[in-house]
Write a structure and sequence with these properties.
It is built from five helices and five strands, in the order ββαβββαααα. The protein has about 160 residues and is an alpha+beta fold.
Length: about 160
């Protein structure tokens, strides 16, 4: 069975040598899982060909685990995540930021999530959206001052 889905990749910038510390302003891109898996055709530790590759989706994040069958490999199991976590949490940045953007845009979460599902784009569930809103305090009185300083009043 061929797994076809989209995921969002957080990249530091168009110049890959530089590193961005701001997850909000860092550029993000949509990519296809089939193209991502092309990067895992060999073990990145010992360079052995064809490791066992498994991929899963955690909301907007792709998680790829490779298992190298070379007994001499120093790191036989390696896990790669397409997004960093929000600092101080175990929440993928894309999951939190997509919920935050839906809230700030005033959009209907169910409609946005439905659009993502029709595209095959990884997204959080409606239940997760409301949990982040409740538990992680995505509220306008906490985040609006930061957001307005960063984006609205820059023009």
């Amino acid at each position: 069975m061929i797994m076809m889905c989209f995921f969002i990749i957080c990249v530091s910038s168009l110049n890959v040598k530089e590193s961005s510390q701001n997850l909000l302003t860092e550029p993000k891109h949509i990519g296809f899982l089939s193209q991502l898996l092309l990067l895992f055709t060999f073990c990145h530790t010992c360079k052995a060909n064809k490791p066992e590759v498994s991929a899963r989706q955690e909301g907007t994040m792709a998680v790829v685990t490779t298992t190298c069958h070379n007994p001499a490999c120093k790191r036989q199991v390696c896990t790669w995540r397409s997004q960093p976590n929000i600092p101080g949490t175990q929440i993928a940045a894309g999951n939190f930021l997509s919920c935050f953007a839906i809230l700030l845009a005033g959009a209907s979460p169910s409609k946005v999530i439905q659009i993502f599902l029709h595209m095959g784009l990884g997204c959080v569930t409606l239940r997760t959206f409301f949990r982040y809103q409740r538990v992680r305090s995505i509220q306008k009185n906490i985040h609006w001052p930061l957001y307005s300083r960063l984006f609205i009043f820059q023009a």
